[in-house]
Amino acid sequence: MRVGFIGLGRMGAGMAANLLAAGHELIVYNRTPGKAASLSARGAQVASTIAEACRGDVVITMVANDDALSGIAFGGGGLIAHCRPECTHVSMSTISIELSARLTAAHVAAQQQFVAAPVFGRPDAAAAAKLFIVAAGTRAAVDRCEPLFSNLGQRTFYLGAEPAAANLVKLSGNFLIASVIESLAEALALIGKAGIDQRAYLELLTSTLFNAPVYRNYGALIVEQQYEPAGFAAALGLKDIRLALAAGDALRVPLPLASLLRDRFLALLAQGGEALDWSAIARLAASDAGQGRAGSQ
Amino acid sequence: MRVGFIGLGRMGAGMAANLLAAGHELIVYNRTPGKAASLSARGAQVASTIAEACRGDVVITMVANDDALSGIAFGGGGLIAHCRPECTHVSMSTISIELSARLTAAHVAAQQQFVAAPVFGRPDAAAAAKLFIVAAGTRAAVDRCEPLFSNLGQRTFYLGAEPAAANLVKLSGNFLIASVIESLAEALALIGKAGIDQRAYLELLTSTLFNAPVYRNYGALIVEQQYEPAGFAAALGLKDIRLALAAGDALRVPLPLASLLRDRFLALLAQGGEALDWSAIARLAASDAGQGRAGSQ
Amino acid sequence: MRVGFIGLGRMGAGMAANLLAAGHELIVYNRTPGKAASLSARGAQVASTIAEACRGDVVITMVANDDALSGIAFGGGGLIAHCRPECTHVSMSTISIELSARLTAAHVAAQQQFVAAPVFGRPDAAAAAKLFIVAAGTRAAVDRCEPLFSNLGQRTFYLGAEPAAANLVKLSGNFLIASVIESLAEALALIGKAGIDQRAYLELLTSTLFNAPVYRNYGALIVEQQYEPAGFAAALGLKDIRLALAAGDALRVPLPLASLLRDRFLALLAQGGEALDWSAIARLAASDAGQGRAGSQ
Amino acid sequence: MRVGFIGLGRMGAGMAANLLAAGHELIVYNRTPGKAASLSARGAQVASTIAEACRGDVVITMVANDDALSGIAFGGGGLIAHCRPECTHVSMSTISIELSARLTAAHVAAQQQFVAAPVFGRPDAAAAAKLFIVAAGTRAAVDRCEPLFSNLGQRTFYLGAEPAAANLVKLSGNFLIASVIESLAEALALIGKAGIDQRAYLELLTSTLFNAPVYRNYGALIVEQQYEPAGFAAALGLKDIRLALAAGDALRVPLPLASLLRDRFLALLAQGGEALDWSAIARLAASDAGQGRAGSQ
């Protein structure tokens, strides 16, 4: 398949490489051109404008946030203006349900297909084609993308015809992960201040009731205070919790635990933690307990 | 071994049966005598006073809360007055760290051994000898209990010489479970109000990042609104969160997520939910979102 | 002075009448034309377009929210396009600091003056010219408006050259009022459930430490459950807390009490309370305590 | 009247002096005897045991907390054992509703009168006889104390026959004050980080909607970061919020704002702020916003 791929960041670079390896014809575009070099060496065409990347039958976007995707999609030089009718735009970024709805409407107006297909998984999972993909859009459009999804991830979940549903599921999933981080942070602060060995405690938890990678991985980061380099930066964590709260606001669903998380991320960023892994909010539970300092290493 | 066993509630009855089946000589006591009948039929001696149950080399207590255990342990007719020196009291109930410390001191003064060994697992796990046991006390005392623990659970974790450490770990574990309930409740309220199928959503979560029984089991209870009969009653959930907060207060560890949970349990009980399963706090996230009624079925 | 006045809602109508009574030449505009009739009868000119209202030396806008003001200010038929250079736009609405900054930049580009002058006071205070006015903008521009402010309110506070500062102060003030409501709601729920007379309790509070109109007025509304008609609607309360949180987000200031308030307003609206007075969030503290029903009268 | 007075701390010393000045016959007792010297010089009898202080027709207790009052009231050397029948014990301390109920029952059993009469006011108000007194107990018992109350305070509120009601009102009042502190702290953190002058802002607030001493006094402490010497220590603030939450727990009234306050006080104490004025919780809102350090001056 001929695939346009826009966004070669830590996630997108690995995903694009997997599509290329699977034999697809790839036209890649990145705002900062240098990122495309290694893909070019392996046969990808490098587009110098968004318009060129729109020559694909499918155009995948994998960018950092709403602003980045809006800038790519709308306007005279944008994706909606340049894609052919019947072209399918697959947005795999974590974006707001509000932008997802706007994109849906704009693509319908342009007689194009729109699929929202955000993913669960960190950069290593993207590189290993082990992502979980949450897809929503018309059945036909999602079916057309299925060969691509099978090259990118280990499993795809179909969420129905409304693209925004996939985005909401992604946001809610990140909310659940951040909730795990906060709950572990509080429990570890309590345990640690009582003088109990945190490593033994975590081993106990994750070999019994909390035998899941999300507890093992984030628990280890917190116990070891290993917040750099960031697998997923705190600034992005704040963004996603903010979007989950915005969805709750639009739907009139109070989310008190998400509110707590938002305040944690804001405090972390106010204290200079923007580039740390998002699990660094655990520092706040510890510093509130008089253990260590939130803003320092 | 000769074992006194005090407390034949939903947990204790199954545990006592397992000890009996393993060949131990059992002297059982329950405040309400009728509960001992089926154990008696299988060979247990039935004590009519706490003092009689204290003839064991080890006396296990498995009761509902601090008040129940205080009533059994202290006073002229109590366990501390009647156990022989060198007898080991194994408290398997979920109690406060403050009571655990008081019991430790009292047993030391009476030249008795004290082991705190609270468990993770619901009544079905107790009956199936699949509990996880968290034990703390002197190494010698815990070692002496090991044959019993291996008949009661699938694994024992040793937390060190300070009995209260085991109680704190147990409380923190229940806090973590309640945090899972609250986070799922909020996510499901959001997803449900957006019109996304909650069952499909839960299947997605639990076959990807949240592939753990605690998410599967509580998620299903929430989605199906199956809050009766209670596996673990909301009133007990409130008790345990209250004890976790009391431990945080004593150690000066703020626990904002536990505070949120406390308020949830209080609201559920204020609305008549005392006897529902503790996962029924999920009703509150739903009713706050205008979905269903907290107080009704 | 010749004054354009846009927005004749419950606040604006009284304010415009006061300017008219003080002898100013008034050109009024309202999206729904009927609202201007009584002002017209007293000598106001009625504009049929925003452009006509822009003939004033000063143009005051007093509308419901960001969207309304954006619609009036920007675009081909808007205020910025039609005001003369040197005309002063006085925005008295409660709006976001982000919109305030955008308006500041747009007016500078058009060589116009911009003053943000939000007010404290309910419609009765607007009608009685008893508002408190919080003004920010260049000293010269605010000075030019002073004669108008003295006809509209009992006192003006000058917050400096940056218009957004006035908007932030207004938002923070509404946050403080909502905090009073929530704290009274919780205290009254506690007192009431203990069987203590709520009226006597409120009288005690407001004749001792809390001897201020904000406690007396909101306390009475809560005790009497007098939530209709709304002096200030819950939907507007949510809007203002949302804007305060957005300001906190932009400045990286966690506001946990504002987060709690946001969740209260969302729950109230989810249960159909959109048009009630914003003090109706007090119902939630009561219903969480099992006292009355949040959604009913 | 012959009055026993137990507890000569910062509040009690001033109160006892006022009773002495008004001509009452005073028998004072303090755990640390030195505190009685200046009262003795002015004619007070100094008791060397609690029993001696119980010779009064009325015995007033004014001590730090539940433990102190329990120690004085119960046991062989205590107040209940030594007061004559018909003697009236007036507890003016801030204590739990649970202890108030226990004292009520014990005094009834001993045919003594019990009045709970906690006060609002700091040590300067105690010295100036400007306290507000919240009294509950049988009408006859409270009436008998009225001459004393009029020497101690500016106004007495009668809360009915149930002593615990007065204690609950006192606790709820302190909760309301702490809520004012937290709301001001968040607003000032926001305003300050936006670069707006905090003093001007506070002047604006307290000359308009928040024209009450509680806003003026605590606002000034926060703006000036004047947390020493403590008018009311943070450790006592935590105690009172804890008691308010305990009352809410007993009555099943969730108090989310009180939960937030509890976590603030715990964090302040964890960071060494025990002896600071309770308004020092405002440091936490500031440090969470990256402004200053919670633990330092």
Pick out its properties:
53% helix, 297 residues, homotetramer, alpha/beta, Rossmann fold, six-stranded parallel sheet, 14 helices, 2 domains, N-(1-d-carboxylethyl)-l-norvaline Dehydrogenase, domain 2, three-stranded mixed sheet
What does this structure look like?
The structure is a homotetramer of 297-residue chains. The first copy, chain A, is α/β, with parallel strands linked by helices. The first copy, chain A, has two domains: 2-161, Rossmann fold, CATH 3.40.50; 168-288, N-(1-d-carboxylethyl)-l-norvaline Dehydrogenase, domain 2, CATH 1.10.1040.10. Chain A contains 14 helices and nine strands. In chain A, the strands form two sheets. Chain A has a six-stranded parallel sheet, with helices on both faces. In chain A, helix 6 (97-109) links the parallel strand 5 and strand 6. In chain A, helix 12 packs antiparallel against helix 13 (256-270). Chain A is elongated. The model of chain A has no long low-confidence stretch (mean pLDDT 95).
